[in-house]
Give the backbone structure.
Amino acid sequence: MLPLAVVQCIGAFLGLLAYLGSVQYRTLFRNQYQAVVMSQQLPFTPWAAAAESGKLFSDSLWIWKNPQKALKLVEVRDWDLVKAAIDEGHGLVMLTPHLGGFEIIPRVLAQHFPATILYRPSRQAWLNELVEAGRAYPNMQFVPTNLNGVRQMTRALTRGEAIGILPDQVPSGGEGVWVPFFGRPAYTTPLPARLANRNNTPVVMFTAKRKSLGQGWLMQATRLEPLSADSLLAASELNQALEQAILKAPEQFIWAYNRYKHPTGAELPPSNT
């Protein structure tokens, strides 16, 4: 019921509180964020980034509860690119990193065509119920990260529909490959390339950069070149595109997520072998 500006202020406060209150959170957040911005010769603003990280979660909750209000606050660019891709008739692989108001992206797309979104269920049942209820929306279907979910996504592409994947999540052991992400080995999914290469499906990277307080988001799209059939090369290409997307608003990325973790069952990264 609160205005977006108020919700974002609350989110910023909680983001700063988490940064101050948890050594583990702060260490992971600061190390990952600092390494990236310093390597790119960008300003290092940890307090601002911590506040923006809190807004990422408050934005998501507000979008879930106020989808129609949220749609009025999103400025969509490059829509002709998206329409041309879907009009090719092979479906669309949409990639949406955890940046800014990323939850608005599938809702914008769902205004135009059905979308099947891959997600990883939470281990906490109550949190899973909250997320599933919040994300429920007409013309959108969420499927879990398992074999059945992948099959449903394949069927959606066959029907010429869109599928969505969060490319910055670490896949389960045995389902990814180690490739560089901002100069460090990161376990990365080759799934977008496998799905896209089945039928020459266009792959588009979307971002939803947060505007000034309470003003909504700027949604932009970039069509990627066809991804390689080789898993290692495809995952490298995916991470390069992801890096470019994050650098549009690095302070708005989810730096508290351990992108470089070693999932159980995965082989060791090249630097450790």
Observations:
- The chain has a mean pLDDT of 92.
